[in-house]
Amino acid sequence: MYLTQVLSDRRAFLKWVGALPTLGVFAAQDLMANAQKAMGYSSKGNIYTKIGVTPIINARGTWTYTSASLELPEVKAAKQEAALHFVDMWELERGVGKRLAELSGAESGMVTAGAAAAMATATAACMAGTDPAKVWQLPDTTGMKHEVVMFGGRISFDNAIRAVGGKLVLAYSHDELKAALNDNTAMVYTTARGENLEKAIPITKAAKVPILVDWAAGIPPIENLGMPWKMGADLYTFSGGKGLCGPQCSGLLLGRKELIEAAWAQSCPWEGAVCRAMKVGKEEIMGLLAAVEAWKKYDLAALDKEWTRRVKKVAQLAETVPGVTTNIQTPPTGNRYPTLTVKWDEEAFKLSVRDCAKKLRYGSPPIETLTNNNPSTVPGLVIARDPKAPAPPGRPDALRIVSLTLQPGEDVIVGRRIREVLIEARRNAGV
Amino acid sequence: MKERREFLKWLAAAPTLGALAAGDLFARAQKALGVAAKGNIYSRIGVTPVINARGTYTYMSGSLELPEVRAAKAQAALHFVDMWELQRAAGRRLTELSGAESGMVTAGAAAAMSTAAAACMAGADPVKIWQLPDNTGMKSEVVMHGGRISFDNAIRLAGAKLVLALNLDELKSAMNERTAMVYTTARREQLEPVIAIAKQARVPVLVDWAAGLPPIENLSLPWKMGADLYTFSGGKGLCGPQCSGLLLGRKDLIDAALAQSSPWEGALCRSMKVGKEEIMGVLAAVEAWKKYDLADMMQVWTSRAKKISQLAETVPGVASELQVAAGRGYPTLTITWDEAAFKLDVQACARKLREGSPPIDVLTKVNRSHVAAVDWDKDTLLSKGQPGPDRLRIVMSTLQPGEELIVGRRLREVLGEARKAAS
Fold first, then answer.
1. ipTM value of the model?
2. B131 vs A157, A385, B187, CA distance in Å?
3. What is this structure's pTM?
């Protein structure tokens, strides 16, 4: 009887008492049925189950492979309304650019098909400008500046830059950045933040080379919408489908007016522009704008409290298993949402983080959690790693629950499942 | 006799003119377009919606999503899913609907071109996928049957080198061991020999019928004809999401195409992202067209076109003709007048329609969305447009209910004014 086992430990008993109100929730009703109903698994099914796709509980955060984020109600409403009228896409671009400028403080802005599309568009803009012959000539860069300095090294999305004709030059330090800038440099790309970025911008300014700052997962807080501009960035981008909770296939490119105009010249609806394939619709454009407007009104402190409450509930349930500890932290850079780490003695439990994540994923409903493993990395990328690149910041693998993408009520389901999986492992291991 | 003919035209137009007189058409039009006092989502940021009489051009924001598409997008937004699982399931359903071996949803037909080219070059080899657009060690030539097109940078950005073949003989001799893919927009009997030549050389052919739906029967036609890969735009006649497209064809090639696409990090086509909502939206569009009765729709489009004809033809000297181009799913109305006598050419008339209120965009030979260098005149730096005489055309598929009266009235106004001023 595992209950007696659980209660045998006094500390565990106190945790049990702490979790009682939460445990009561699933004693009182059939949680699974509720969850299934909430997720649309009821007899009637939902739009996904009809084609054999099982929705998942996303406890991993805004990864593209877990379909990023769920659109805010404001975004859904804007997309629906935008679908009712025809508009001239150039006029729409200018209208949205003006509004984004008001909201961000940057000179201008545009909506792209995502942050990767923004990388491609920015690179093409910095190489071809608005010269129609050059626009049509890309990705052939003959007669154009075409080197893109990757400050911080290569990233898994850099084929967005290579596709439009950019040649990568790697720079890991400020000195290497300075040395890399020459007459062929079209742009500097970086994901740097804070002091690292503050030191990089004057170097690019002195060389008169535009810098693209990629803070794909940088919103919320919405204050970041104006931050790179204040720091002197020429161009910067955010993903629309991450923390912003706009359309999954949208992104923001903000910055200097002349560069945004050049970026428009590389984009849809132009036929013959290199980024035409990275199409974004009127619905997605208006949807993303609505997301930015919504975040301007949201109270992040209140949201933070709600997010924390959700992961706390998961923590309480997980900690009823003796030997399990948790902590809640908000990452200081990107993806700034309360994130729960669940720890246990992997050897004693005979259950690694990877195995636990797998069990959660293959349960019903499936739960995707955050671990060090990123299944969406193209394997060739690892094989071709630059030997000069500094080793990526290693952190021991851990099971993490990202609060932002957890929907109301899912906290209890996730907590219960983790508890179940860990108890089972502990019992099997004879702890 | 001539006057009698004009009188008869008036007579024919009388009920339509009556509809004009009966209400404040303009106010109704504005309301319908959402530019009324309260405004709409676009007018609030200073953007004026347009009556789209030009068809599904991307610069005119493609098409308006079907109600089924909007509903599917809204429902799709409620759940998280695994994007690989979703693409595979959407592919399975597309297979059932099309008869092709497999399928996937892309960010549009241009994205499908990139994805197909990358798939034919790198296959599913992880090292090659990450290496693209550097094509070292891969088959790298794409034969453009029919020559270059204004979207070919979609193929070039994947790292492919274009080889032009303007006829079948050139196509045959263009094939070699470096050929990764053949690209063509050919239709019907022109397509058959292209496929035969590609098959013989064991080179996959991508058939681009971006605007080929409706009729929905075309969804399976290229497969039946032996195409390895083929694409349709989701935001044209299909009336799915503007930023969506279909790529259908052989299973091994679609598997390779998925390996080049989002959500993979490190895949060449990651930047051509398509969301879960758009995937479910375009699928809903295909399902909807399977149920629609095109003959019914044709009748509605034709009766709307008739109203425009009637109104325009009340101006003496104006004629019109309704046509359905072979293989096309919707009718197009051509309006003609003596441009010299009216002192009004097609471009000037189109401009007046566009600059009026509400703005009306019509189809002419000039495509404003061509990057100038695609087809410019080196002296004027202006787009030359398609060869042949210019004509003012009204594409019926994008006109919304009631807009036919507004368009007819405006045409009558502009042409009537020009005629008066010229006499």
1. 0.93
2. 12, 12, 34
3. 0.93
